[in-house]
Amino acid sequence: MLQDNRESISKKIGMDFEVVRIGIRDASKPRSLPASMFTQDLQSIVDDPNIDVVLELMGGVDPAGGLVEKALLNNKHVVTANKELIAKHGSRLVHLAKSRGLDLHFEAAVGGGIPLIQPLKHQLAGNSVLKMMGILNGTTNYILTQMQQEGSEFDVALAEAQAKGYAEADPTNDVDGFDTSYKVAILASIAFGRQVPMDGVYREGIRSITKLDIKYADLLGYCIKLLGIVEPTAPDRILARVHPTLIPKAHPLASVLGVYNALWLHGNFVGDVMFSGRGAGSDPTASAVVGDFIDVGRNILGGGAGSAIPYDSGMLTSPISDLKTSYYLRIHVQDRPKVLGVIATEFGNYDVSLAAMEMKTLDAGRGEIVFLTHPVREQSFRDSLVALQNSGTVETVCNWFRVEDSQ
Amino acid sequence: MLQDNRESISKKIGMDFEVVRIGIRDASKPRSLPASMFTQDLQSIVDDPNIDVVLELMGGVDPAGGLVEKALLNNKHVVTANKELIAKHGSRLVHLAKSRGLDLHFEAAVGGGIPLIQPLKHQLAGNSVLKMMGILNGTTNYILTQMQQEGSEFDVALAEAQAKGYAEADPTNDVDGFDTSYKVAILASIAFGRQVPMDGVYREGIRSITKLDIKYADLLGYCIKLLGIVEPTAPDRILARVHPTLIPKAHPLASVLGVYNALWLHGNFVGDVMFSGRGAGSDPTASAVVGDFIDVGRNILGGGAGSAIPYDSGMLTSPISDLKTSYYLRIHVQDRPKVLGVIATEFGNYDVSLAAMEMKTLDAGRGEIVFLTHPVREQSFRDSLVALQNSGTVETVCNWFRVEDSQ
Fold first, then answer.
1. Which of A380, B169, B377, B402 is the most buried (most CB within 10 A)?
2. Considering only residues 120 to 159 of chain B, which have any Cβ-Cβ distance to chain A shorter than 8 Å?
3. Are residues B274 and A275 in contact, defined by beta-carbon separation less than 8 angstroms?
4. Beta bridge partner(s), residue A4
5. Is A269 contained in some domain?
């Protein structure tokens, strides 16, 4: 991208730039630039006094974190796409950059090419964020879209995503929600001004979703998405979570399909805004990295480098048991008289009230029931499930998911 | 907003701020702040040496333009929501600000609280923009949504919008597309780096749309939106236009309903991105203005003021006759043998080929036909209409609109 759009990028920075050296892992890969530009000695790049800006696109905390820190200590501006590094060490690195009058930008770490971090830091900064919900991982959104549109089971959709190169051979980082949780932590840190500890982000992946659940959700007017959700729960405290979520089909996030990502947020003045686009891939990532690079160039020229307001560590988080939301529940019961009465009584004991229900007969003597509840505290809902299982009425709690009814 | 979120805004600027004086037109209106803060002498504000930043929220070119210019000449940073002023004089004012090391921000001029201008200037700046399409006026989108969902005619939907306060007593600025054309000019100036002259923006409003056209569009898989559309036509030349447009129901802009605004763009690296939210109203406008104000504050503190890259005047534009797109056409014909043959022949003479057709019989001897064409140069399409009317076969050309099939 720096080559293709070189003239317009130079014009937008207000000065020319030169790519000095490119650090690589694998020297045997064919490259489109002269061999003399490449090195496997990454340390030599962050120590090179002729380099003003370092772009870090390795991923992972080690050795990327040490290299970024060294680059800052050597007075180089840094642009990175490294979500895990920023989620875990962003506060410390941003403070280090600020203290040395340097820029540290990481727009590509969340949402690929979609502008999210900087709009939160700047154009939306005057708002108190009341809620954020994001589809922040293209792999899982692709899998869920396939399950919804083709009626595939998870394993089939995952295999297809792997065949198309959308999912890795070991898909854990995506399908178990780790990738989304890093991005949620970064967005929450920016929006609420303190770094969110990773163990404060509740996390569930999408492996447990079946095509049957997707069918029932559809019948009830919902689709199932892996959402990252953040909301304030008290002054200086938030609840940050990643899990499969039922959202109404009319919600704008429900129309975000395939590998697309989106962030929906509600601010106390701006109201609802949504950003969407391609959340991954080399070209969208390049778009974000080069946007950051242009800003660094302008700041070098204009004297505004290091003007970012750093955020401290230590955001307080609420446990998932404090969540108050609606739930989807699918159970199998022995089909005998009064089963619904028993269930209603147990729900009532834990303040769980019902908003919708679907029933069907399975084989002889057994039935499947799907419930949507009204909002209730998660601890109460979980307690009611234990009580149901102990009641002798419910054969199996097959599956349950949280529901977002906010439009 | 500055009062409500004062503490968090001060924290995000990195220093405290004080509202010094508020210029008003009408001294008799009740105000929530002490009377001593208000003045009708606007000149005294831009001349006050104790004021660092001026927020201009008057609208119109005169006297707002003179006041903004004077504020800059007096070394004050300026934040404005004035779309007409920036569309017509943005290049000159941005150059003036830059030459004095000052900030001139105008995020609120387009899309209300949705971050659009700054993401185009920064995070997306490395891209060549290949196409932009926006729903940039909430009043007309509300009217079209009502026509689509309630089956109202334009006059009824307009009256309802006026009753709800979404449309003014004189709705010309909105329904005839002037407001959208200012916003299109600003977005195009930022994205393509030169100020677009207002007479280079083709403009049509929504008064000619009937509920019948909306019904036919629906039947064909489309809805009708007032879009602002910009695309490059040659190096350093663009085609910028505002008109009712048929877009496929599956296009993300088709789901933008009521007073919501949205900008969809395609960049050569980022691919498709879309931004949506409330495009007008005092709270969303405040969100954008305060976001700009926070940036000005940070720049004052961090030394980055005036680092924006100014854009020159004189963008070259292509005439609408050079457009190549698809068309929707509704005509009335005398229902006699070979009418379709005559029409097909005339279309063929002008390279117009057909993609879809709907026909129905009106009263005895007359028929209504709706065509969707394949893409063709607008001049050819218009020539074909003249030929059809001269052929003796077509009784009336009832209505025609441009179609966007790009996903």
1. B402
2. 122-128
3. yes
4. none
5. yes
For this structure, is B211 an active site residue? Answer: no
- Rg over CA atoms, chain A: 24
Q: How far apart are CA A378 and CA B402, in angstroms?
A: 52
Q: Provide the CA B58 distance to its chain's centre, in angstroms.
A: 19
The values of phi and psi at residue A274, to 5°, are -140, 140
Give the distance from residue B108's alpha carbon to the nearest chain A alpha carbon, in angstroms: 10
Q: What is the mean pLDDT of residues A305-320?
A: 90
Contact by Cβ (8 Å): A332, A362: yes
Q: Name which of B12, B267, B299 is nearest A309 (Cβ-Cβ).
A: B12
CATH of the domain at B92: 3.40.50.720
Confidence of residue A278 (pLDDT cuts 50, 70, 90): very high
DSSP letters spanning A117-166: HHHHHTTTTTSPEEEEEEE--HHHHHHHHHHHHH---HHHHHHHHHHTTS
The interface predicted TM-score of the complex, written ipTM, equals: 0.94
* pLDDT, averaged across chain A: 95
DSSP H helices in A167-239: 172-175, 178-192, 211-219
**pLDDT at position A407:** 46
Q: For residue B96, is it left (φ>0), alpha (ψ between -120 and 50) or beta?
A: alpha
Q: Where are the alpha helices (DSSP H) in A62-130?
A: 64-73, 83-99, 117-121
Token pair of A259 as six digits: 């590998």
CB B402 within 8 A of CB B326: yes
CA dihedral A41, A45, A47, A52 (to 10 degrees): 180
- Is the domain of A180 the same as that of A43? no
Q: Same structural domain for residues A15 and A147?
A: no
**A248, A165: one domain:** yes
Q: HSE-up of A381 (CA within 13 Å, CB side)?
A: 25
Q: How far is CA B211 from CA A47, B253, B257, B402, in A?
A: 68, 20, 17, 17
The answer to whether B127 contacts A5, with C-beta atoms less than 8 Å apart, is yes
B34: domain range? 6-113+281-310
Q: pLDDT tens digit string along B243-260?
A: 999 999 999 999 999 999
Looking at the fold, whether B263 and B304 belong to one and the same domain comes out as no
pLDDT category of residue A392 using cuts at 50, 70 and 90:
confident
Phi, psi angles (nearest 5°) of residue B66: -65, -40
3 state DSSP class of A58: coil
Domain count, chain B: 3
Backbone angles phi, psi at B217, to 5 degrees: -60, -45
Q: Are residues A360 and A274 in the same domain?
A: no
Tell me, yes or no, whether B316 lies in a domain: no
Residues 299-328 of B with CB under 8 A from A: 299, 301-307, 309
Do B17 and B165 have their domain in common? Answer: no
Does B135 share its domain with B23?
no
Spans of chain B, pLDDT less than 50:
407
Distance CA A219, CA A217 (A): 5
Do A124 and A64 share a structural domain? no
pLDDT digits (tens, 9 = 90+) for A321-362: 999 999 999 999 987 778 889 999 999 999 999 999 999 999
Q: How close is the nearest chain B Cα to the Cα of A398, in Å?
A: 35
Phi-psi region of A353 (alpha: psi -120 to 50; beta: other; left: phi over 0): beta
Give the phi and the psi of residue B290 in degrees, each rounded to 5: -70, -35
Q: Cα dihedral sign for B36, B37, B43, B47?
A: positive
Q: Are B366 and B333 in contact, with CB atoms under 8 Å apart?
A: yes
